[in-house]
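This week, look over our next protein:
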Amino acid sequence: MIIPSSKKIIPQKAVTILGKQGVNVNPEKAIAILDFMYLLANLRFMERIKSSSKVF
C-alpha cells in the first residue's frame, strides 16, 4: 500500500516535466499517470524485498 504522504511529485510538477518532453497533459491525467507510476514503483519495491529475503 502506498502512503499518500510518501508521494513527492505533485501533479503540476508532473505536467511541467511531461510538457518539457512534448507530452501535454492536464492535471487530472497527471494524477492518473503519477498513481500508475507509484503503483509500479511499489510493486517493484515489494518484488525486491521478496527476492532479497530469499537470499538469507
